């Protein structure tokens, strides 16, 4: 415009507009932290976010010593993003970084070396496994590790308890502007539910892909509005690594027996009616339940309204048979589920925030009728341990365990009475992850146990003729079979803290002597 229609003097005369500025040119007004060349503003409109290398993206991100970086674990044991990024970061000389990952698996053992060489001094995650878990249990970290549930991690990020400076997110496909998903490309992983939260709240987001597609990419899991830089690499992950031992389909007779008892409890609860909802956690027995409900759905001519959480082929089959209305997927547990996210309209990926953040308006877990969850240990107060082994060493993950147990109308914990020569039902669990007050039913190969806080369920189970046992009897039976467990000796050094989903500290893990 040749003549200014609005001047500063005019704005100063308008109530409430004294702090505003008049129009100058199409690109003159920019965020304070964005550097522009006033002479060539239009030429600086970003028409591609692709940078030549990860090293260049890291430089552009402004990463500094002591900052927080994040990763997702949708590739589980097949992840190649974290090791690749950490190798470059170490080579660039960064120190004292905090790694805030959605979870860490055996694919991330390289972090042991990065802790030793000072690149990493803090780790926050839902899970720790393998050599990394062993090293942290032995006190390798300068600061205690932080264990959060999936909902708790989402809450911490959204509320600002965890401020992510740079998020490194692997996606099986991306376009030049960063529109990304996990269902197109050569290395699919399905849902990007954990990455969604990081992308939405991190200061800088680096999208890493091995399949660059034409703009605009579709479907869009993570939009270009959340992405700062795109880096194309040779390989981000091995899709075959998605399915691990914790997400296997069992043929174990004991686990199948437990699954059948779980179905009996569900049928007797009065909640197994048309339109019920459910989630099954990891572990053989809990996953087997998914297959056993199929016959009952057909027999009763009813349908499950939605299934939630980590989705498996068994749930995909129920969806495609019309026995489940919708799948809400935060993490695809196998390749069939990963493929289904891109194929089935009613198979929808959701963020961990949508899934289980207890502080948002209404997470999906709040509508659950049933949740079936596994356990490493359960005590006579119904407290559940899913993070540390009977030797006190960290070996697993919090996951969505405490999130779903707290919210579902009926939370069912499944475990064999004995694993090898170790009891799972004990006087006091090694580490409390899920408080007993949120556990309704425990199912073992020795029978069904109801929390005394749920007399309504006990009454229904007895009326249905279910064979119930008391928790004290299970503890006694386990001791009779394997004897009194030898107490673990710990030092006073805290190697990890366990946050409950609301951010309070529910337990700590100490170094084993």
From TrEMBL:
<protein>
    <recommendedName>
        <fullName>Citrate lyase alpha chain</fullName>
        <ecNumber>2.8.3.10</ecNumber>
        <ecNumber>4.1.3.6</ecNumber>
    </recommendedName>
</protein>
<dbReference type="GO" id="GO:0008815">
    <property type="term" value="F:citrate (pro-3S)-lyase activity"/>
</dbReference>
<dbReference type="Pfam" id="PF04223">
    <property type="entry name" value="CitF"/>
</dbReference>
<dbReference type="InterPro" id="IPR006472">
    <property type="entry name" value="Citrate_lyase_asu"/>
</dbReference>
<keyword id="KW-0456">Lyase</keyword>
<keyword id="KW-0963">Cytoplasm</keyword>
<dbReference type="InterPro" id="IPR037171">
    <property type="entry name" value="NagB/RpiA_transferase-like"/>
</dbReference>
<dbReference type="GO" id="GO:0006084">
    <property type="term" value="P:acetyl-CoA metabolic process"/>
</dbReference>
<keyword id="KW-0808">Transferase</keyword>
<dbReference type="GO" id="GO:0009346">
    <property type="term" value="C:ATP-independent citrate lyase complex"/>
</dbReference>
<dbReference type="GO" id="GO:0008814">
    <property type="term" value="F:citrate CoA-transferase activity"/>
</dbReference>
<dbReference type="GO" id="GO:0005737">
    <property type="term" value="C:cytoplasm"/>
</dbReference>
